[in-house]
Design a protein that fits this description.
Helix content is 63%, strand content 11%.
Length: 607
């Protein structure tokens, strides 16, 4: 239950609402208790179970005095106005306290609402913020569907199971405690019989709760698999249709869905055991109370009215006890969801910024990679070496082309510069200062990125070009003109204020990429990282994008991952990577003369 208690720590931000919730729940409990207690002397006198005293006793906080006091007053009221008048007065008092009880309960729920929604909102914000600052290596072994499941299904489970249990965890324990105190005052001996039965209930509930937690964890993982399958299907629907694989993918989904359904059925069946178990043991306890209480009345150990009151109060305490067991089952079910959420919140944030990080970056000389190593660990625990002892110098203003087979480590090499990931050994230095000494935001402000996949957001074209930058419409237009994008943008229905939809799929590949380039031009970085920015384009689109890139690269230090010979030829230096190492480096002609890996790559392109 450790992770559940951590979630409860979010409640600290709602102290006022918590205090008011507890206050009104306490008032509700006492109003409920009084409405039951007031019945006891009336029933006793009305049915002649005990006789009212001849003289009205002086009121005191003693159970016998209180019974005698109310008995005498009710008897006097009955003699003076009749039984029906007495019943009417009692009914009015009971209705009044029932109204107060309902009002206080509503007010308790009223002040619980902002706590319930606020805690989930705070959790959701924290998870989203954590996702945005985690290194890319965290996501290499995670499926997007599983991460979405944690932000949706797992949070929903916590809201339903944990936060909705807050009222039970405040109101019901208060009611059990207050009513139990009243029972102890009424007859400590009868309470002992209840306490003998309660441990049996606790043992059974604990055993079922442990089973519930195990199955809940499996259920949360399975819904993550389901969401991953849906996400993959939406992303690859064209291929699914092209290969007539609808039945295959549907069968796969149905199989996963059946596993999830069976798990949830098992969870619900165990969860529903809570109320019947509590009810059976409560009835057993009630029978024991009536049997032993009746014997005590016959022996003259307690008044009959005390036994009546005890039975009434115990019957009233059964419901909150059932609610407490339900709340316990809810918490056990949510424990697996909480654990999955804290896997993200507790994830090791490897990109750590120094307290005295340098805010001002002045790039005047060169970038150096010195003995840089990088690896990541797969879910199975196997370590994969990605970069192995990289040494590289990049002079300011140079364009460096990085070539090599897929998986050679090209993307990781450039990802280390803006600290999307951090090297395990070695250093990356800008003008004799390690990138780890810079403020991360300041470092990334100096770097522009254009990737192979055109990453756009469900926003207007203006919003996508000015993403993260406070820019005017003229500045955005100038950037779009430099990226050869202005002409097609102005022909759109709303021009720069046209919403381009999810991932910008309403535009062509070339148009999307030119918007990305316009975004990089507007940022005006000193260092530019291009990750195969033209590889997915047709010839005409590539020409327009290449023109845009040349304008963007002018006067900037550029690292470009490229497969196409047209991009490589214009580079100042070419880095050839193989198996995480720099296998060759030099100019186009010098590398061709070596007749090595590079010359073979060029030969493949020219065939």
């Amino acid at each position: 239950m450790k992770q559940i208690f951590r979630i409860f720590q979010y409640i600290k931000g709602y102290k006022r609402e918590v205090i008011l919730n507890i206050l009104f729940n306490l008032l509700y409990v006492f109003a409920s208790l009084f409405s039951f207690v007031i019945v006891i002397p009336f029933v006793s006198v009305l049915f002649g179970i005990i006789k009212a005293p001849e003289i009205c006793p002086e009121f005191a906080f003693n159970k016998d005095v209180i019974i005698d006091y109310f008995s005498w007053n009710l008897n006097q009221l009955s003699l003076e106005y009749g039984i029906y008048s007495c019943l009417s007065v009692l009914s009015a008092i009971y209705i009044f306290f029932a109204f107060l009880s309902a009002l206080f309960r509503y007010l308790g729920m009223y002040f619980l609402a902002p706590i319930r929604n606020g805690v989930i909102s705070d959790l959701r914000n924290d998870i989203y913020h954590k996702i945005t600052i985690l290194p890319l290596s965290f996501f290499s072994n995670k499926r997007k569907g599983d991460l979405l499941s944690r932000m949706t299904s797992d949070l929903s489970d916590i809201e339903i199971s944990v936060i909705s249990s807050l009222q039970m965890l405040v109101k019901d324990p208060l009611m059990v405690i207050v009513f139990l105190i009243a029972l102890i005052i009424a007859s400590p001996k009868l309470v002992i019989f209840i306490l003998i039965i309660l441990p049996l209930v606790a043992i059974l509930i604990k055993r079922i709760g442990a089973s519930l937690n195990r199955n809940s964890e499996k259920g949360q993982k399975q819904i993550g698999i389901l969401l991953s399958t849906v996400e993959e299907t939406l992303g690859g629907i064209r291929i699914i249709n092209a290969y007539n694989a609808e039945k295959i993918i549907s069968k796969k989904f149905e199989g996963q869905n059946n596993i999830y359904t069976k798990l949830m059925t098992k969870i619900l069946r165990r969860k529903e055991l809570s109320s019947p178990l509590t009810e059976i043991f409560s009835i057993l306890a009630l029978v024991v109370i009536v049997l032993f209480g009746g014997m005590m009345v016959l022996k003259g150990e307690i008044h009959p009215s005390i036994l009546i009151g005890f039975v009434l109060l115990f019957a009233r305490i059964v419901a909150p006890m059932q609610s407490l067991t339900t709340a316990y089952y809810n918490l056990k079910k949510a424990e697996a969801a909480a654990q999955r959420i804290y896997e993200i919140l507790d994830a090791n944030e490897k990109i750590i910024e120094k307290p005295d990080a340098i805010n001002k970056i002045s790039f005047n000389s060169k970038i150096e990679y010195k003995n840089v190593y990088f690896s990541y660990v797969e879910e199975q625990g196997k370590e994969i070496m990605v970069l192995d002892n990289i040494n590289l110098e990049i002079e300011k203003g140079q364009t460096i082309a990085i070539v090599g087979k897929s998986g050679a480590g090209k993307s990781t090499l450039i990802d280390l510069l803006p600290r999307f990931q951090d090297s395990l050994k070695g250093e990356i230095i800008i003008d004799q200062i390690s990138v780890k000494d810079f403020n991360i935001n300041s470092l990334r402000n100096e770097i522009g990125v254009v990737t192979q996949e055109s990453i756009l957001f469900n926003d207007t074209i203006f919003g996508n070009i000015a993403f993260g930058i406070n820019a005017s419409i003229k500045e955005v237009e100038d950037a779009a003109k430099a990226a050869n994008a202005h002409e097609f943008i102005k022909n759109l229905p709303k021009g720069y204020y046209t919403n381009i939809g999810d991932r910008g799929l309403s535009l062509s590949g070339g148009e999307r990429q030119r918007i990305c380039i316009a975004r990089a031009i507007l940022k005006n970085p000193t260092i530019l990282l291009l990750d195969e920015a033209t590889s997915a384009l047709d010839t005409e689109s590539e020409r327009l994008v290449q023109e845009s890139l040349e304008k963007l690269m002018k006067g900037r230090t550029t690292l470009v991952i490229a497969h196409r010979l047209s991009t490589i030829l214009k580079s100042d230096k070419i880095i050839v990577m193989e198996n995480g190492k720099i296998a060759e480096q030099g100019t186009h002609h010098s590398l061709l003369s070596q007749n090595g890996i590079y010359s073979k790559l060029v030969e493949l392109q020219t065939l």
